[in-house]
Amino acid sequence: MGVDHLQPGEARQIDYHPPMNVALATPMFILAGALFVLFVGRTLIRLYHRRRLREILRTDKQGRFKRRSAISTSLYKHVFHAPLFSIRHSRYLKLGNNIHMGILPLRFEAALLAVYIAINIVFFFVMVDWWKDWDEVIFEFQYSAGSMAVLNLPGLVLAAGRNNPLVPLLGIKFDCFNLMHRWVGRTIIFSALVHMIAAVRMKVFEQGGLAAATLLIWNTKFFICGLVAIFAFTAILFQSLSPVRHAFYEAFLHSHIALAIMAFVGLWYHLEGMSHQNVMLVTVVLWGFDRATRLACVIWRNIGTRCSKATVEMLPGDVARVNVTVARPWRFKAGQYAYLYMPSVGLWTSHPFSVAWTSKDGTSVLDKDATNSSNDSLDRAVGGSQETTVSFLVKGRDGLTSKLVRKAGNSPERTFNAITLAEGPYGGLESLDSYGSVLLVAGGIGITHPIAYLLEIVNGFASRSTAVRRVTLVWVVRSLDHLSWIQPWMVSLFSHPALQGPNVPKQESYFELPELALSIQIYLSNRDSSPEDFSPESPWAISAPTGVAISINTGRPSFRDTLDVEMAHQVGAMAVSVCGPGEMGDDVRQVVRAKQGNKKVDFYEETFSW
Ligand SMILES: Cc1cc2nc3c(=O)[nH]c(=O)nc-3n(C[C@H](O)[C@H](O)[C@H](O)COP(=O)(O)OP(=O)(O)OC[C@H]3O[C@@H](n4cnc5c(N)ncnc54)[C@H](O)[C@@H]3O)c2cc1C
Ligand SMILES: NC(=O)c1ccc[n+]([C@@H]2O[C@H](COP(=O)([O-])OP(=O)(O)OC[C@H]3O[C@@H](n4cnc5c(N)ncnc54)[C@H](OP(=O)(O)O)[C@@H]3O)[C@@H](O)[C@H]2O)c1
C-alpha cells in the first residue's frame, strides 16, 4: 500500500519526506467511528431514561419499568458490568502489602483496549509494501511506526484532560479515559521505539557501519530531537508504572508533565517540515485548551468580589470537614466532584473530592426551592448577597490530605480557615431520578457520594421531579464516632417535609401513597464499636422522623440479603450505587450481576481507582 506518496519510479531521497499516505490514519478514523457509535448508544439510553421519568411523573405508575428483556439482562451481566474474569475489578492488585499494581479493567474496557491495540498493529503491517527491496521495507516500517506514534498523540492528550468533552458526551467516566490514556501512551512508546530501531538500522546500512551512523546521528538536529523525544517517552514508561505512581503521586505527576513537555518539544522539531507536524499542533492545542479551561474555571468560580475560602474542621477518624464558601457557585448535581487547591497546605497542587453537601447562608439548599440553584451564578455575578457553601469530607492519607488533617488537629478548637480554590464541577454523569427504588451503599469516607444523592432525591421528591419512592442507604463504618461526619447534614435532611409522612409499608401503588420511604442501615465493622453505644439522645436519633427507619448493626452486611429485601419491595426500575473501598465495589457488583434476571436492577460504581 505504501506509507507515503512516493511516485512510481521516483527514487527515495535521504533528507526529503514525501507527504504521508492518509490511509495511515485509518485506525484513528475507526476509533472515531467507534466513539460515535458509543455516543449514539449513550444518547438512546439517556432519552429512554428521560422518557421513563416523564411517563412516571405523568401517570404515577412505574410497575412496567420493573422488567428487563433477556437480551438487556445478558448484556448487563456479561458485557457492560462484568469484570475481566470473575469478581475482581476495583480491588487493587498488590505485591506484598504495599506494592500497588493497579486494577483489572472491566471486560468491556478490556475489549475496547484490545480492539484499539489490534487495529494499530494491523495497520503497522498492512501499510508496508513487503514485496519491495529490503531497504524500502525497513524505511516504510520505520515510517509506519513513527506515524502511528504521532497519530495517537491527540487521543493521548484528550484522554488525560480533566475537561475532555467526550466524558459528558459519551457518559464514560474519567477513570475509564485514564485507563485509555495509559494504554494509548504505551502504544505510542512501543511504536516510537520500533521507529527508532528501524531508523538506526537504516542509517547503519546507509553509512556503512555503526560508528559512522552514530556520528551522523549526534551531529544532526533532526535525529537529536527525535532521540530527546524517545528518551522522554521511555522515562515516562517507567515513571508511570503503577507502584511508582501510587507511592509518589505528586512527584510522579510533576515529572510526568515535565517529561511530556520535553517529548513534545523534541517531537515538534523532529517533525519540522513534515505533514505530521500538523498532528503535533492539534495535540498541543488540545492540551492548551484543557489547561486554559482549568485556569479559567478556577478564576471564574473563586475570584469575585472576594476569594473563595474554607473552614476546615477536624472530625474523628482522621477526617476533616471542609466547608468552602465559593465566590460563584454552580448548579449542583449529585455525583459531582471538584479539585481543591489549598495553597497554605498544598501550594499549587490539587486533589479531587466529592461534593457532599451544599448550603446557602448556612441553611441547607434543600430548604429552598430547588430550582433557585440554577440562578446562583447569575445572582453572584450581579452581586447577589447569598453565600453558597460547598462541603467536602477529606480523609487523611499521604500527602496534602494528611497535612490538612494534621493542621486541623493542631489548630485551636481543631478548626482553621484558609483560602481554598475549587476547580470544577466534574462528574455527576448519572441521574437516578428515573428509578423507583435506589439502594445506596457506602464504605467509610465513600459516604460523600450517596449523601449528595440523598439530598438530590429528597429535593426531587419535594418538587415532584423524581420517580424515586424507596431509598435505602447502607453505610459500613469502623466506629460509631464516624456518624458525626455527616450528622449536621442528616439532621437537616430529616427535617425536610418530604420525610414527615407516615411510614406505611409500600407495595405496588406508590403514588397512591405518595411518601418517600427512606431507611438507613449502619454497619459497624469494627467489633470494638457496639450498636448499644448508639445513644437515643444523639442528634441522629432525636431528629429522625418516625417514618425513617434507622438500624445500627454489627459486622459487615450481607449484600445478597440486602438486595433480596430491596428487590422484594422494588418499585419500578432499581439502581444500586456503591462508593467505597474497591473490595466493597467488587462485592456489590458481583451480587447485582448474580441477581440479574427479569427485574431491572442497574449498577453504578463510584470507586476511586485511577
Ligand atoms: C472522583 C474522586 C472523588 C473523591 N472523593 C473523595 C472524598 O470525598 N473524600 C476523600 O477523602 N477522598 C476522596 N477521593 C480520594 C482523594 O482524592 C485522595 O485520597 C487524595 O487525592 C489523596 O491525596 P494525598 O495528597 O493525601 O495523597 P498522595 O500521596 O498525593 O496520593 C495518594 C493517592 O491518591 C491518588 N491521588 C492523589 N492526588 C490525586 C489527584 N490529583 N488526582 C487523582 N488521584 C490522586 C493517587 O492514586 C495516589 O496514589 C476521591 C477521589 C476521586 C478520584
Ligand atoms: N467519588 C469517589 O470516587 C470517592 C469518594 C469518596 C471516597 N472514595 C473512596 O472510598 C474508599 C473508602 O475509604 P475509607 O478509607 O474510608 O475506607 P475504609 O476505612 O478502608 O473502609 C470503610 C469501611 O468499609 C468496610 N468494607 C471494606 N470492604 C468491605 C466489603 N467488601 N464489604 C463490606 N464492608 C466493607 C470496612 O470494613 P472493615 O473494617 O471490615 O475493613 C470499613 O468499615 C476509598 O478508597 C476512597 O478513595 C471514593
From TrEMBL:
SUPFAM superfamilies from the UniProt entry: Ferredoxin reductase-like, C-terminal NADP-linked domain, Riboflavin synthase domain-like
Keywords for the protein's UniProt record, in alphabetical order: Cell membrane, Electron transport, Ion transport, Membrane, Oxidoreductase, Transmembrane, Transmembrane helix, Transport
Subcellular location: Cell membrane
Record-annotated membrane-spanning stretches: 22-45, 110-131, 183-204, 216-239, 251-271
Similarity comment: family membership: Belongs to the ferric reductase (FRE) family.
EC number: 1.16.1.9
GO molecular function annotation: ferric-chelate reductase (NADPH) activity
Gene Ontology terms describing biological process: copper ion import; intracellular iron ion homeostasis; iron ion transport
Domain FAD-binding FR-type, chain residue ranges per copy: 302-432
Highest taxon above the source species: Eukaryota
Membrane topology, as annotated: Multi-pass membrane protein
Name of the protein in question: ferric-chelate reductase (NADPH)
Stored PROSITE patterns: FAD_FR
Family annotation (InterPro entries): FAD-bd_8 (IPR013112), FAD-bd_FR_type (IPR017927), Fe3_Rdtase_TM_dom (IPR013130), Fe_red_NAD-bd_6 (IPR013121), Ferric/Cupric_Reductase (IPR051410), FNR_nucleotide-bd (IPR039261), Riboflavin_synthase-like_b-brl (IPR017938)
